[in-house]
């Protein structure tokens, strides 16, 4: 039997040739099928048919020959398994597709939908199988290896320098032996893992860990300590190029320096270091505050460091921006709002030398607006939102209240981190994660989510990749990820590689164990330890990461990019470390860090408008802040300031008046269960008694979705059909001593069941100062039957009516104008509004994952929303009417006021003439709406200069 094994080996090795047939045939078949979607009798049908048949046949033989290749060549590992399974699945699907097509073509009524669906699924699975096969042949990072972030990987120069250093001495120290071993393991990682790893054990040889290296493979021991010539690995790497047994068989051969290092390592006893091999660059953990350069021309610490940087790059300092540009920039960055025209004029006229720093202090001390602006940054970073995945089932918790309190009270970053890691009441949602419904991948357990969230948001470390297998983009291992996740687990976690258990149990450990032990008996005790370890000054990674994020937010580009890969090389390491160390010295005061950047001359330089994204990412040279688009929240708030409020309700209302009114409606029942309110009219009543009538004031707040008529003691008070507008009514003259009755006729529009609700509050203030509130709640009564005419009076008997149901705030949020306080001119800040289609289109993320940066480039969806979106255009329409009501038909006044509010300046003569021609002497709503749109779409409005 052994004599004919070569036949099976030969057939197996034909697998790489054959797999290209199903790839080409089935993919082209799908392409041609798409071209013939509207034509069942397409002239392409004959060709498509034979492509599908031949594709299925070649897929079958490819799977058979692939199985032979695996069994004859000793391929093993999870990657091989997955490639085999998807290959077999492709074959099965291709054969089924061919049979479905054959049966369909034999019928008179040719319904091709099932066949087309099967063909699409087949090609998708085929693509996955092909990708896994490419991983096997070219290495698991063959796609990502070309990315710019990989340019700083291992190179031969490093081998040459180490070899030169080690040759200087006959006897190597323990440290030198460690360096030599780690370098050799780095060579193995870059040149050998694609064939000899846990995922692909070609020749039964694994070079990924100590056991595999010294065990050897099918050819026997790979390493014989002290004897390179007898070591199979050394013999193979020194064979001439083209030899059938030379290693590596794929990719570049080892260089002379690399071969010499492997030889030296074996000669010196093949010492194996206990340290992890550092295949990728890794930033120093410790944080040191660099000495500032002695630069007399610059006073600010940041500018001294930038001055040194400019000298190195032969750059001159540009002049700082003018006052008008500066005030808009700093307003937008600190509080997220446009400056008032009067504030702009006052600032420009101010001749105080220190006025810019004073303005920065003023804005940073505007605690409410500062908090409501920066809330969006922290919500993105900490994966916090008001609604979304997990909230319905209770498998996710908000941290909004805790976060808002922390920001408005300017809690130190240390305190915030401690309370996020070792939760206090209100902050536990961060490490709680999302309890996903259904079957959950091992890498998405809530404990692993906690590790991933902390790693990414607070440490700029990618734990996600390492939670499935040893990372392809960093030095982090599966052991490290599971050790970190175990801190948050009340049971011992078993390591899963690519979602398959490997029989190894994790031990609680921080990603950087040199900072201290976090192991203890209970989760609570471990979290206490971790919270203390995390905020040590020695954990420079924590402070560098946030410093880098703040610099990116204010300057448009981080000192390190991407922001979540803090092992990458910074464009100015001294600047990053100085700012981070100064941040720690301030007691980790967030506003102090912001002020250090904002008061620098570097922040006040003119913006740089890079024409290509690549210029911002690769070979970047700092010349000033990068031109930035307004965020979804900044744009929304600016529109609300200038035109008309975009949003009427917020999901979280920190400044709202505490009114215990509930959104109620008739309790709709169907088949003995509560259902959504049905369309139609419903009738509501609430009676109450007044024992005295010495009333100072009596006011009503009412909002009904969709429309209502309000009666008090039989008299009609008001009616409206827009629930977003709170009607505020004086009802003092309608009240009387004894029994009083509130009656509301509400109507729910639509054709099917949909949300509806009455929100009502009456505040009665007596002469004594005593207050009485009558609020909508579940004590009110309702009916869906038309009552007689007396239903609005005190005499009506409503005993047969049913109690209403509280429908909560989920569909309406908290109306900011539902208050008895005078809050004219206020609007709902976008950061407090739950995810809205308009903000989603403008780039606000769903926050189901940590989001540390948003896409700056405009998208087609944004363009469509801003040009044809009903929501945005409705706001412009409402705003146009409000402006006409306010300014009449005075085109000149409207244009001047619009420019001052939106752009902070007067229009030029040419701009005024152009818009006067557009509006005419008697502007109409539609004309003004178009002018609004033109101004809001201008780069001057949309960008921070």
UniProtKB/TrEMBL annotation:
Q: Which SUPFAM superfamilies does UniProt cross-reference here?
A: Cytochrome c (SSF46626), Galactose-binding domain-like (SSF49785)
Alphabetic keyword roster: Membrane, Transmembrane, Transmembrane helix
Which InterPro entries does this one have?
Cyt_c-like_dom_sf, Cyt_c_Planctomycete-type, DUF1549, DUF1553, DUF2231_TM, Galactose-bd-like_sf
- List residues of the DUF1553 domain: 529-650, 834-917
Residues annotated as domain DUF2231:
14-137
Q: Please list every transmembrane segment annotated in the UniProt record, as residue ranges.
A: 17-38, 50-69, 84-102, 114-134
Where in this chain does the record put each Cytochrome C Planctomycete-type domain?
192-248
Domain DUF1549 residue range list:
301-490
Alphabetically, the GO molecular function entries are: electron transfer activity; heme binding
Q: What protein name is recorded for this chain?
A: Cytochrome c domain-containing protein
Q: Which organism is it from?
A: Wenyingzhuangia fucanilytica
């Amino acid at each position: 039997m052994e004599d004919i094994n070569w036949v099976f080996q030969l057939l197996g090795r034909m697998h790489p040739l054959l797999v290209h047939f199903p790839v080409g045939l089935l993919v082209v078949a799908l392409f041609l099928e798409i071209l013939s979607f509207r034509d069942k009798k397409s002239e392409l049908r004959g060709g498509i048919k034979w492509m599908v048949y031949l594709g299925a046949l070649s897929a079958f033989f490819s799977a058979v020959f692939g199985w032979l290749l695996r069994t004859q060549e000793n391929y093993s590992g999870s990657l091989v398994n997955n490639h085999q399974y998807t290959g077999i699945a492709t074959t099965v699907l291709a054969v089924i597709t061919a049979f479905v097509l054959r049966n369909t073509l034999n019928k008179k009524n040719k319904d091709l939908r099932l066949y087309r669906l099967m063909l699409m699924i087949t090609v998708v699975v085929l693509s996955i199988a092909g990708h896994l096969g490419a991983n096997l042949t070219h290495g698991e990072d063959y796609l990502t290896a070309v990315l710019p972030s990989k340019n700083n990987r291992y190179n031969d120069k490093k081998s040459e320098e180490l070899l030169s250093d080690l040759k200087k001495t006959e006897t190597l120290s323990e440290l030198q032996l460690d360096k030599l071993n780690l370098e050799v393991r780095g060579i193995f990682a870059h040149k050998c893992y694609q064939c000899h790893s846990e995922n692909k054990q070609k020749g039964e040889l694994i070079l990924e860990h100590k056991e595999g290296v010294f065990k050897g493979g099918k050819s026997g021991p790979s390493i014989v300590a002290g004897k390179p010539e007898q070591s199979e690995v050394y013999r193979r790497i020194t064979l001439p190029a083209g030899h059938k047994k030379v290693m590596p068989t794929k990719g570049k051969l080892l260089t002379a320096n690399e071969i010499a290092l492997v030889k030296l390592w074996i000669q010196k006893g093949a010492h194996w270091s206990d340290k992890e091999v550092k295949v990728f660059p890794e930033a120093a953990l410790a944080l040191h505050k660099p000495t500032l350069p002695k630069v007399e021309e610059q006073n600010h610490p940041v500018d001294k460091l930038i001055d040194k940087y400019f000298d190195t790059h032969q750059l001159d300092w540009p002049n700082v921006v003018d006052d008008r540009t500066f005030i808009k920039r700093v307003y937008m960055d600190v509080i997220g709002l446009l400056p008032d025209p009067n504030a702009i004029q006052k600032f420009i006229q101010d001749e105080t030398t220190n006025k810019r720093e004073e303005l920065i202090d003023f804005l940073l001390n505007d605690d409410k607006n500062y908090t409501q602006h920066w809330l969006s940054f922290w919500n993105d970073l900490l994966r916090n939102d008001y609604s979304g995945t997990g909230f319905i089932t209770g498998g996710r918790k908000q941290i909004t209240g805790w976060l808002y309190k922390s920001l408005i009270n300017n809690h130190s970053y240390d305190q915030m981190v401690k309370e996020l890691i070792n939760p206090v009441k209100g902050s536990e949602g961060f490490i709680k994660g999302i309890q996903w419904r259904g079957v959950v991948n091992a890498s998405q357990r809530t404990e692993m989510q906690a590790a991933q969230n902390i790693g990414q948001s607070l440490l700029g470390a990618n734990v996600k990749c390492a939670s499935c297998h040893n990372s392809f983009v960093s030095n982090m291992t599966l052991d490290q990820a599971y050790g970190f996740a175990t801190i948050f687990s009340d049971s011992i976690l078993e390591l899963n590689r690519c979602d398959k258990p490997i029989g190894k149990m994790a031990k609680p450990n921080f990603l950087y164990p040199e900072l201290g032990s976090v192991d203890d008996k209970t989760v609570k005790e471990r979290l206490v330890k971790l919270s203390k370890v995390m905020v040590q000054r020695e954990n420079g990674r924590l402070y560098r990461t946030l410093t880098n994020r703040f610099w990116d937010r204010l300057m448009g580009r981080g000192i390190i990019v991407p922001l979540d890969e803090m092992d990458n090389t910074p464009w100015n390491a001294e600047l990053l470390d100085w700012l981070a160390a100064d941040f720690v010295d301030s007691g980790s005061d967030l506003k102090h860090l912001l002020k250090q950047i904002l008061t620098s001359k570097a922040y006040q330089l003119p913006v740089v408008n890079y024409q290509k994204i690549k210029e911002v990412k690769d070979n970047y040279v700092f010349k000033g802040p990068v031109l930035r688009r307004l965020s979804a929240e900044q744009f929304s708030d600016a529109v609300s300031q200038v035109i008309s409020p975009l949003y009427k309700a917020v999901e979280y209302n920190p400044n709202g008046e505490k009114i215990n009114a509930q959104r109620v409606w008739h309790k709709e029942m169907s088949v003995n269960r509560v259902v959504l309110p049905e369309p139609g009219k419903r009738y509501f009543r609430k009676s109450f008694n007044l024992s005295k009538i010495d009333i100072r004031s009596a006011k009503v707040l009412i909002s009904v979705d969709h429309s209502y008529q309000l009666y008090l003691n039989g008299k009609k008070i008001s009616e409206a059909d827009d629930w977003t507008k709170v009607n505020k009514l004086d009802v003092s003259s309608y009240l009387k001593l004894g029994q009083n009755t509130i009656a509301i006729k509400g109507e729910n529009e639509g054709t099917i069941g949909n949300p509806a609700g009455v929100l009502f509050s009456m505040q009665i203030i007596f002469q004594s100062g005593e207050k009485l509130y009558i609020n909508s709640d579940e004590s009110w009564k309702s009916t869906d039957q038309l009552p007689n005419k007396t239903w609005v009076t005190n005499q009506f008997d409503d005993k047969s009516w049913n109690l209403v149901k509280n429908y909560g705030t989920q569909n309406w949020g908290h109306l900011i104008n539902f208050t008895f306080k005078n809050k004219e001119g206020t609007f709902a800040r976008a950061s407090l509004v739950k995810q809205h289609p308009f903000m989603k289109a403008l780039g606000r993320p769903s926050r189901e994952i940590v989001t540390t940066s948003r896409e700056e480039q405009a998208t087609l969806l944004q363009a469509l929303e801003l040009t044809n979106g009903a929501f945005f255009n409705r706001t412009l329409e409402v705003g146009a009417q409000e402006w006409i009501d306010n300014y009449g038909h005075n085109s000149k006044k409207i244009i001047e006021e619009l420019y001052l509010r939106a752009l902070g300046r007067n229009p030029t003569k040419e701009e005024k003439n152009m818009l006067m021609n557009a509006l005419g002497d008697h502007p109409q709503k539609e004309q003004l709406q178009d002018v609004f749109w033109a101004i809001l779409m201008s780069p001057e409005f949309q960008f921070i200069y």
